[in-house]
Amino acid sequence: MTLLAIIIILFTGGIIAWLSERYFKAGGRWISLITLLLTAMLLTNYFTFIHSTGVGTAEPWWDSLQISWIPRFGIDFHLAIDGLSFLMLALTLAMGIFGVLMTWNDISFRRGFFYFNYLWTLAGVVGVFTAIDLFLFFFFWEVMLIPMLFLIAVWGYEQRIYAAIKFFIFTQASSLLMLIAIVGLVYIHYTNTGQLTFNYNALLNARLPPGIAYWLMLGFFVAFIVKLPALPFHTWLPDAHTQAPTAGSILLAAILLKTGAYGLLRFNLPLFPESSIEFAPVAMTIGAISIIYGAMLAFAQRDMKRLVAYSSVSHMGFVLLGLYALDTIAIQGAVMQMIAHGLSTAALFALVGALQHRLHTRDMQQLGGLWGRLPKLSAIALFFAVASLGLPGLGNFVAEFTVLVGSFRTNHWMTALAAIGLIGAALYALLMMQKVFFGKLNKRLEKPIREHEATDLNIRESCALLTLAALLVFIGLHPQPIFNIAEQTVQRSTTKIEAVLNIQKFSPEKISSQTHPTRLEHTSIEDTTP
Amino acid sequence: MSAQELFGILPLLILSAGIVILLLQVSFWRGHLGALATTTITLVLAMTSCFWVAGSLSGATSSIQVTGLLQVDYTALFFCLILLLTAFAISIMGYNYLRLRCDPKGISGSYPEEYYILLLLAMLGACTLIFSSHFATFFLGLELISLSLYPMLGFSLTGDLSPKREKLQSLESAIKYLILSALSTALGLFGIALIYSASGALDFVGIASRITELSQTSTLFATGVTLLLISIAFKLSLVPFHIWTPDVYQGAPTPTTALIATVGKGAVIGFLLRFFNILDLYSSQVLLDMLSIAAIASMLVGNLLALMQTNIKRLLAYSSIGHIGYLIVAFIIGKSTFGTEAVIYYLVAYIITTLGSFAVIGLVADSVEEKVLKGEYPESPLSDVQNPYQRAFYRGLLWRSPWLAGCFAAMLLSLAGIPLTIGFIGKFYVFTAGVEGQMWVLLAGVVIGSALGLFYYLRLLLTMVQRDNVPDINNTGAVQIATSGQLLLLILTTALLVFGIFPQILINWINAL
Fold first, then answer.
1. Maximum Cα–Cα distance for chain B, whole Å?
2. A181 to chain B: nearest residue by CA?
3. Nearest 5°: phi and psi at A379?
4. Contact assessment for residue B409 and residue B457, using Cβ atoms and an 8 Å cutoff
5. What is the three-class DSSP state of B71?
6. Quick one: which H or E segment has residue A129?
7. What's the rounded Cα separation, in Å, for the pair A214 and B390?
8. Residue range B259-302, pLDDT digits in tens
9. pLDDT number for residue B49
10. B61 SS3 class
11. How many degrees, rounded to 5, is the angle at CA B394 between CA B388 and CA B400?
């Protein structure tokens, strides 16, 4: 029930925030904050499960709720939480609170409606992270898009309509492919067993013909990597991030991108283990190329927000690489990267937003030498910039290192290629610091600083940012708790895949049809025996 | 003709009686409200009679055959009920439209009452078409709809207060529809003749009994069915028989546009379902291929041409071409687990959303017309911003009239197939049916069409939320629509959300058929 309560509180909180703005001038943001704190408190109910569940427990879910919804299709309102969902929910709510705090005074136009959309996006995301019925998952997957669309289209910057439509068409068209894949999966399961259900637990055991499974897997894969975003489908991201208001960018970068990665780990790998193994080299290549390409483009940007946006493409490439290494350590690294990237990028977007709010520009040619004027902001920006480039001791380093270690066993070349991306990260992060904060104060800034009375970070902003910084340091120095929480989910994905790999390794009749390194050894032995 | 048979066609009898009463009433006592009252009472009675008849159909008598011409069964009654509800909504829209345009006290004295007679006639035709089990009644029903639509399309001419431009466009649309519809009727009639010459029967059951011997071999029969399908495709505005749609939709009075888009298509779909079921035409691969091609073409062409429209009625015309394409995808599956169910669900979704969007446009245009009559607004709009049929007019509507814009947004999201709305469940049904029939090419068409559709629905939606050039808070730009219209929109939006969030209710009704 707690899960349902969280979602309902977020939805109703959104409506109350909208209505309250008529009566209290600043009611919306207070109500949003209270709503989010309330849901965060509800989430702490699950702390007890963190230690009590070890690996290998029969019941995978900490808690679940199942209500019949559309019996005609065997669709249930089915929510459940496990370690991975818990981590994602914690990230979602924390970033939600962070976003409200950081943009406390940013919104002046129709504030009530803004917070309505903000909370509804979060409610949709919470639904995505907890839905275990595939139809419900798709439902929430779409529900989070509409309010996000409004956030970009109403409160965004110059090119907002273009960016909003582009964002929506990319995600919606790809998710229709996922819908076909979902229906196809369910239908095959139905013809095999006579049981029409969208239940994830039941579909895990669906036996799929290999050819069709591959296509279904691709349907899911495309929807998820558009969201991630990975290389050919990333073009919506720089526009959406750049044009979105600061709070929207924080939501997009910290949370919405993670839904793609979450979907890959939760649905693609366990539902289609055989096809995933077959597809892994391609996915890893896409991941590695995204890392390099994202870093290169980030390096070439003038607009600070675009730079951070492209750095997201690069960082999420590590997630893709790690997930498709199909290795426990690499997947753990990918989960860690999801969290670390969420924290660091949210902070960077918040900082760019703070600069934009103060100086009314995010063009790096117009900025420069801000350290003297805004020392606190600059220092914190330095922290998150080096976090983003992967400084040891911070969360991102742990994540990227683990991904690379795990992937190296599976695919040497791609991992080596991906590691080059780290150099790129150092380049663009330091370049940004150099251009914006170091050196002499840009002459063009003197006027805006005088006019807008640019002040340094206030206590509210500093506290919010320092909390994130502390969290990054904490998971950088002591990452084990997060690994522990995620372990059970990761194990369940990998055991299925390892089982398939073992079958492929040891059963001779399968070997002829599958491409696997062992085949070479095997045939060579046979050739020499006569 | 037994008493039971007469009872079976009670909805038709009530509609006919209503028409006669209305004719008499109008000849003795002219009055707009009175005509509306008689119309709505007739429609409500006809709806209630649908329930009575459905109640009497049970167990052994799941259908009543009336004189070999009509057949009453649950599915037909359900269609009938939906269309009558639609007509009820259209009569309210029509009232608001005519109230402003017809002035009986004026010099020339233009009277609006005929509109309701024509509306009831069209409904009589639609219900006959749905009940038909014989080509005579099929033709009668189809022609009754078309014949009453011609004057309804040109009804702006009757109103002496309607703007000149509106009159011209209305006339244009009526004549276009008249000529093209007559052509398609001729083709259909020729098709019927060919079918008759091949099979020697005009009632569907009679043809079905001969079909095994002629379905694959007789070219005469195949040609006949093809010609008939062409005539039907014209009514459904399937590509390549869609050319008339945008002009007719744009020029016609908005309530008539809503009528032609909902009742005109719904009745034909209802007939098509029965025709294909009785004759078992689903087994004819050639026909299905033709329909598939038409469906794909409709989805692509409809959505592509809608992309660049700035006139909202034209945009909706093209989008409705696309939607009928999606519907045909579900239709092609035929008698499978989800096929028929998907068609009916999608049709209900289509009717609710189309009706809702045209209601919004019509009511907004009426509110502007009211201002024009009061002299607060220029009669001929100088720019797109002042023309209520142009997208630019809707700029920032959400901030001016939040509830109206909210309803319209819900309609647009439903048309685009976004969850929480009935349109999404409809599209989900189409996907399910498509996967069940393994028609991947058609499904690809649905995906591409939907992606294209998103663009223009979203652009309209985002036009409504644009925040620049928003008038001051004193609501000068607010759009005031009539109370009856507000109620209508509220009901439609509620239905759209309820059936979108709890689709099982509607699914149960459909499955009970």
1. 74
2. B435
3. -65, -45
4. no
5. strand
6. helix A111-130
7. 46
8. 999 999 999 999 999 898 888 888 888 888 889 999 999 999 99
9. 92
10. strand
11. 110
User: How buried is residue A41: exposed, middle or buried, by Cβ count under 10 Å (0-12/13-18/19+)?
Assistant: exposed
- DSSP-derived letter for residue A252 is I
Distances (CA, A) of B188 to B138, B231, B235: 11, 5, 11
Chain A residue numbers with beta carbons less than 8 Å from the beta carbon of B434 are 180
Model confidence at B380: pLDDT above 90:
no
Let me know: does B126 contact B142? Beta carbons within 8 Å: no
**Pairwise CA distance, residues B428 & B424, whole Å:** 6
In angstroms, rounded to a whole number, what is the distance separating the alpha carbons of residues A195 and B497?
29
Å between B466 CA and nearest CA of chain A: 6
How far off is chain A from B513, nearest CA to CA, in Å?
Answer: 15
Distance CA A5, CA A274 (A): 37
Which residues in chain B have Cβ-Cβ distances shorter than 8 Å to A117?
none
Whole-number pLDDT of residue A514? 44
- ipTM for the predicted complex: 0.87
Cis peptide before A229 (omega within 30 of 0): yes
> What would the two tokens of residue B92 be?
């309210």
**Interface contact flag, A165 B455, Cβ < 8 Å:** yes
* Closest by CA position to B324, among listed B352, B292, B342, B347: B347
Give the separation between CA A66 and CA A64, rounded to whole angstroms.
7
The one-letter amino acid code at B213 reads E
Inter-residue contact A3 to A93 (CB < 8 Å): no
What does the DSSP 8-state code read for residue A255? I
d(CA B66, CA B478): 53
Tokens of B270: 């209802």
Cα A444 from Cα A436, distance rounded (Å): 13
* Contact assignment for A187 to B511 by CB distance below 8 Å: no
CA distance A520 to chain B (A): 37
Q: Would you say A143 and A162 are in contact if contact means Cβ atoms under 8 Å apart?
A: no
Based on its alpha-carbon atoms, the radius of gyration of chain B, rounded to whole angstroms, reads 22
Residue A420 and residue A407: Cα distance in Å, rounded?
14
- Find the CB nearest B451 among A149, A164, A173: A173
Domain edges within chain B:
284-513
State in Å, rounded, how far the first CA of chain B is from the last one: 26
Which structure tokens are listed for B311?
Answer: 């006139």
Q: Tell me, what amino acid is at B221? A: F
Report which of A295, A322, A290, A489 is spatially closest to residue A402, judged by C-alpha positions.
A322
The bridge status of strand A63-70 relative to strand A75-81 is antiparallel
Closest CA to A277 of A113, A410, A438, A85: A410
* Sign of the dihedral defined by the CA atoms of residues B198, B203, B206, B208, in that order: positive
Distance, CA of A104 to chain centre = 24
Comparing alpha-carbon positions, the chain A residue that sits nearest to B463 is A161
The candidate with the shortest Cα–Cα distance to B499, out of B511, B508, B489, is B508
Let me know if B3 is exposed, middle or buried by CB neighbors in 10 A (0-12, 13-18, 19+). Answer: exposed
Provide the residue ranges of all domains of chain A, joining segments of one domain with +. Answer: 1-46+65-267, 272-489
Global confidence as pTM: 0.89
Average pLDDT along chain A: 85
Is pLDDT above 50 for B136? Answer: yes
Token duo for residue B513: 């058929």
CB count, 10 Å around CB of A55?
11
Give the pLDDT band of residue B108 (cuts 50, 70, 90): low
Return d(Cα B36, Cα B18) in angstroms, integer.
12
The H or E element containing residue B179 is helix B164-199
